[in-house]
Design the sequence.
């Protein structure tokens, strides 16, 4: 599901991959864009890899239920209600959703949680940068990093502040800044900075191409196909 840059790269990579015996590792039976009627008529697959748009979620759910296939979802921008629908689908088929399928970003999330625990009292700011065609902001990965900070921080009042403007006053000790930059062809850069008195620690992941996300999604598809129904995290599948 998805015929844009990510969907097209996933397809070409999958079709080129070979198994240990030299045979095709994947067979692509269909690819859908915004013509959702195609999804209703497409043949069944073992796994649906969805890097599309929030508007196609009903078609994703309908296809998975009709075919009984696993779902690897990398679509970002979902509301809490839409993510709840994906979780509910996990009661019928194996489902994994992640805002980022990079192994390096998974490590960044783990390191962010560790740094948050070990640097109490430090101000935390998250900055993400993507190409000028990205539709949602902040990125799904930035939201995942935010979740790691809030979960690891011993602060019931911790809350995000999405950008700042005007006479916003001094920084609230409980806030976590989240900022989105857009421009050019940037595949994705995420930085989590910790500001203390007279010192600063920053953790950065820089993607130089979308291929890392494609490779992670295909690896997840291979593992998910063998799982029982459930809603899985990327970490649960890969680690």
Sequence:
């Amino acid at each position: 599901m998805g015929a844009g840059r990510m969907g097209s790269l996933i397809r070409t990579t999958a079709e080129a991959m070979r198994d240990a015996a030299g045979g095709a590792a994947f067979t692509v039976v269909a690819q859908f864009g915004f013509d959702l009627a195609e999804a209703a008529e497409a043949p069944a697959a073992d796994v649906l890899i969805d890097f599309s748009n929030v508007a196609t979620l009903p078609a994703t759910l309908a296809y998975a239920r009709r075919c009984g296939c696993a779902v690897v979802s990398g679509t970002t921008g979902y509301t809490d209600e839409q993510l709840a629908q994906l979780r509910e689908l996990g009661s019928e088929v194996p489902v994994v959703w992640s805002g980022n399928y990079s192994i390096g970003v998974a490590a960044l999330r783990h390191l962010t949680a560790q740094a948050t625990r070990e640097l109490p009292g430090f101000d935390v700011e998250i900055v993400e940068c993507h190409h000028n065609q990205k539709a949602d902001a902040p990125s799904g990965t930035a939201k995942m990093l935010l979740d790691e900070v809030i979960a690891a921080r011993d602060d019931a009042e911790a809350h995000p502040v999405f950008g700042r403007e005007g006479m916003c006053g001094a920084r609230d000790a409980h806030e976590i800044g989240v900022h989105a930059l857009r421009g050019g062809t940037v595949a994705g850069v995420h930085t989590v900075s910790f500001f203390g008195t007279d010192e600063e620690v920053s953790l950065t992941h820089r993607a130089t191409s979308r291929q890392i996300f494609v490779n992670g999604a295909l690896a997840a598809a291979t593992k998910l196909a063998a799982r029982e129904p459930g809603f899985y995290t990327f970490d649960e599948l890969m680690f």
Q: What stands out?
A: The mean pLDDT is 95.
